[in-house]
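Running this now, will post back.
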Amino acid sequence: MPGAFSRPENERAGTHLLVMLHGYGTGEERMESLFATLPAGVTAAAPRGSLDVGGDVGWYLLDPGLRTDQGQVITAASGVLAWLDGVLATGPFASVSLFGFSQGMAMATMLLRLRPGRFRCVIGIGGFVPEVDLLAVTEPLPTRTPYLWQRGTGDRVIHPGALRYTQEWLEENTALTRREFDGVRHVITPAMMIETDLFLREHVLDAG
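Update: finished.
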């Protein structure tokens, strides 16, 4: 699985790994553009989705209602975990955390669901939690991982039903911090990255 990294392999040992997952119809370049906003001590890794979306990429097929094939979601997340295992073999890293935008937030949450307790924290922006009955039978998760959920009140991409489920799932399964930004649409803003920086400092860098 191709991807982008914020530092070369020989400079990663001892840093905190942040896996950054792009949205549907973009690519790892969108996450790469955010690398400079992250605090020192963090190594960012942005894998590239394998689903072709008209020249760009996504993680799994998505319809406007955000309905998904559960098998596709689990397969996509399992592929990212396999890629992550290879990255971790190049470490050692001090910790591993997740960041996702839009469908990337769905993927980040899936990684957390498949490996609960493995990640220091999760940051999701403008996304949702997919409904996966196959995993719901083993939930709530045994560990409440710190989770920062950010969205704009002007974001109309994620429909109200998905937002309600996302709110309920995050409250029941994570140590949730929620931030809303008035009038902001389906984008990542500088203010959101400031919140991301503060969250990483509190839950990753200051935690050791």
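The helical segments are 28-32, 70-88, 103-114, 133-136, 160-173, 190-205. More later if anyone needs it.
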